[in-house]
Structures are given as C-alpha cells and as structure tokens.
Amino acid sequence: MTPPDQAVAGLDRPPLIRPAISELQDSKIVEVWKLGFTVPDVIGLWVGEGDLPTPSFISEAAVASLQAGETFYTAKRGIPELHQALIAFGVAFHFGALRRSNSHWRARYHSR
Hints:
Helix content is 43%, strand content 7%. The chain has a two-stranded antiparallel ribbon. The C terminus is likely disordered.
C-alpha cells in the first residue's frame, strides 16, 4: 500500500463504495489528490463544498459563460489565451521581451 493510500485508509469512515469499484486502479489525478493528504502543510481545497454562498459576480460570470456556449472542458494544456498571458507575464516579469518561433515560446533574455 502506497503512503497516500495509507493516509486515506487511516480515515475513520464506513465503506461507501462497492468492492468492485474500490478495486479499480486510481487515475493519475486521484494519485495527486491522495498525495495531498501526506503533506502536513497542505490545506486541501481541491474537493468539497464551501460554507459561504457564491458571490454574485462569479455566478453571473458562470451564467454568461454557459449562455455563450462555453460548456466543454478546456484543452488539456489549458486555455490558450490564458497560457499565453501567463507566459508573457512570467517572461516580462523575469526576463523581458517575448517572441514566438516555430510554435514554441522562447524568451529573449536581456539585462534590464
């Protein structure tokens, strides 16, 4: 039994899943989720439900997104526009100019 499985197995709770289901191999995302239980300083915000109502600006943005047809998962590598914005910010913050060449992002490092 792996350390993440040991951490989860140590929780005092009745079995809620059929044996046939609990015997299935974990996905990689579940492995990462379980690893969070083994890190003492990690505050697990990856699952569960908050105890406060969702702020209206978030609810309104969700409704607008659904009405705009944004009802599918994002690309596995993330939202391209957000990806580009984060790259641009990181490079500008740390190194300066950014250029795109042959479908790969490359930073031109220069002194400030």
